[in-house]
Design brief:
20 helices; globular; alpha/beta; 35% helix; 8-stranded antiparallel β-sheet; 22% strand; binds 6-O-phosphono-alpha-D-glucopyranose
Amino acid sequence: MCGIVAYTGFRPALPILMDGLKRLEYKGYDSSGIGLLDSGKMKIFKAPGKIKSLKKKLEKEKLEGFLGICHTRWATHGEPNEANAHPHLSANGKIAIVHNGIIENYAILKKKLLEEGIEFKSETDTEVVAHLIAKFYKGNLSNAVLAALEHVEGAFGLAVICEDEPDVLVGATRGSPLALGVGENESFLTSDVSVIVGHTQKIIYLEDNDVIRVSKEEFEIKNIKNKTVSREIQEVDTDLGHVQKGDFPHFMLKEIFEQPEALRNCIRGRLLLAEGNAKLAGLDNSLKELRTIDRIIIIACGTSYYAAMVGECLIEEWAGIPVEVEYASEFRYRNPIIGSNTLVFTISQSGETADTLAALKEAQNKGATVLAICNVVGSTIARTSDGGVYLHVGPEIGIASTKAFNAQVTVLAMIALLLGRQRRLSSVQGMEIVQAMSSLPALVEETLELSDKILEIAKIYYNHANFLYLGRHYHYPVAMEGALKLKEISYIHAEGYPAAEIKHGPIALIDANMPVVIIAPKDALFDKIVSNAREIKARGGKLIVVTTENCAPLDEFADHIIKTPSVNTSLMPIITSIPLQLLAYHIAVLRGNDVDQPRNLTKSVMVE
Ligand code: G6P
């Protein structure tokens, strides 16, 4: 999604901004641009497509300015062309802005500005703000931004510079993250802290309606009412910014293979064998409250939503608490009923997904305690929630989420265990679960050895146009997630379905051209799903089965059998999801796709 880096200081801005753009790339974007003051003059360079196109444009330029802004854009208003790329300029060319988010009343504002004779150069909502700031500019950029924002509705993270104030950066935020990096005689503004931690670890996360004025040595933060406010400087982890692909051709493959280590980090220090329980520091203050809850709502989007669906099965099974899983985008605009003993969880890898954040706030407005399960430390959702649990799996760069999914399920399993031990699970049952969870990293390692076999299957099917993924109970969400992975990176149409439900429609699609991936580990529903597999086979469908040892009679009629190791039935999604990640990956590579940055997708969706 859109990303911002801005700089003011004693070093030439261009290399810092270009490096920032490069690091922002992982979020997904479709154009980029840079604006800086060069010998006191505002210069803007923009290009559609990848950053290398922008780099090409800058090759012959000798730019030496010390103040600048840059942006990766993910198109919302207007196609991803040069004119719509950021920065956008005021009519006199003196004020340049970059913007994340959506200005909801831009059409009304644009109409007024057009009536005042302003000419627009782009179709974006952002350009309206550039003109508004210029309209209110009377020699002080932050005052002009404050005045302009009084007229603006919607979400924004903004960075603004002006030719007449050659070392001043102004930032503003509402519903879209923005942070200040405080260096020695230099400062950074960014929407993604991980891209600047190579320069400084001192970070101030701005809060909604903050407007910050930054120069080389100092900064001042005001709220929308023009009152000075103070925000705490936090030290962030240096590891955040140093993510390399190593020997892997893609971040996605690296992250798939990182899962044993990721799970080790996720469970480290959190499982209590002797007590058969889990200890999650982020929930310590809520333990009493957790004892009394009688209903749970889990809110999420995308892959996190499918992890939540696995969580629903886990919590209901182990703790006996009814769980509802909700799409954040739906929850936020309904009138959800939240009782006094309802607990709400939000799940978000990035911690920045706009709908999830809005749903979180809506639940809080209705009086709920909201706990977050996030990966990105210090993210907006993590900071806005009433507590929660981090995944601790390190940055996930591939847009298609893999290690975060399995860590989310692992965290949900630990929460289910904790809630279960407060209720109906005995210590012996708890110990069995802890033992099973401790064995997961090794079992995931073993599962990854299936990669070559899965590549061979991918070679047979990578040119197909449709796939079906089927599973039951714990593996229905896994089927949904498997289909999502394939769609995201291979652009093949795929649907996930509860296996028995296909008789009510999708079975009409089955013929010899339809590969059907069935997730059928040996569990209580094995015989049922074998029957579903036979129904597919009888209609000529191609069966790719993910199962475990002793899978007869499946091995007699399936076209391909992928056998994974076994673990406690409730934890099996962490194993069965892995062949599906690998299948999607290999198919996408065979089709020649950009696996880490698939078309049209972004890592964190910061617009609703
Ligand atoms: C985007 C990403 C997905 C992710 C979803 C939710 O669509 O491409 O990989 O699952 O957002 O993101 P979150 O950060 O809230 O988990």
